[in-house]
Amino acid sequence: MKHLLKLMDLSETEILELLNTADQLKYEKHNGIEHHHLKGKTLGMIFSKSSTRTRVSFEVGMYDLGGQALFLSSAHTQIGRGEPVEDTARVLSRYLDGIMIRTFEQEEVENLAKYGSIPIINGLTDYCHPCQVLADLMTIREHKGKLAGNKLVFIGDGNNMANSLIVGGIKTGMEVAVACPKSHQPDPEIMKWAAENGKFTCTDDIMAACKDADVLYTDVWASMGQEGEAAERKKIFEGYQINSEVMAVAHADAMVLHCLPAHRGEEITAEVMEAHADEIFDEAENRLHAQKAVLVKLLGGDSTTDLCN
Ligand code: CP
Ligand code: NVA
Asked: Which domain holds residue 90?
């Protein structure tokens, strides 16, 4: 594993190794045990979109590991003025030990990896959000005691979150169901792969998808970059909501997860959100631990091999 560009690139074993490392790092953090595995290392964080969790958890994660992180807003670097990614990749590779990038096109992330010579981590594109799903898997395993055998249901827009959840869920042996409007289904190639490699369904029937769910997951109706479509999207996604009726057809002990930020009254009711706040905010916390595992694996070199196995 040289980069984290998308979860499809990782084997089930690699995913589970990262989750084991994340569990260990969480235990150490909660018990005040410090390990500066990345002493002297610098992570560049390129952001072409907003962020609370991703920015703060990567920055704190690098600090915890003895390194440092640089916030590089695309609007305030030459990236925003059109400097080609091929050049940015080669320049930043001479200064930094790794790059985390949040942007629109998956191709930009892939090209950073292609032209640069340091590890690249995808901090969200329109196509996928692998860091979020590593934290989600960690949270499901923490609360349910296992991953394989659970039924994971995603309700909402079939874009970045849905795409990564399908891949992460199927790779770790979960049954995955997606409930979304026919016009907003996940990536066709990912759905084809999921159907061939596990138990997968995609339907516009929310109740059918949520029946006997162990984990219910939702995300905003209008993603970053789609703010201008918000009114239209409210009509398209009306009803694609985690509410008490949906919870009633899921298993009685079903978990609820949300990548956040949440819009109460749209994709989730305030009542369900508050009833499952422990799970949702554990999930947010786990961004820190899961990403530290990724950083140690990618930037840590040989000295940290033990931690990842
Ligand atoms: N879930 C997530 O990626 O949050 P931010 O947009 O705040 O980073
Ligand atoms: N689908 C959302 C996820 C935010 C973490 C977005 O892209 O804005």
From this structure: 7-129+287-303
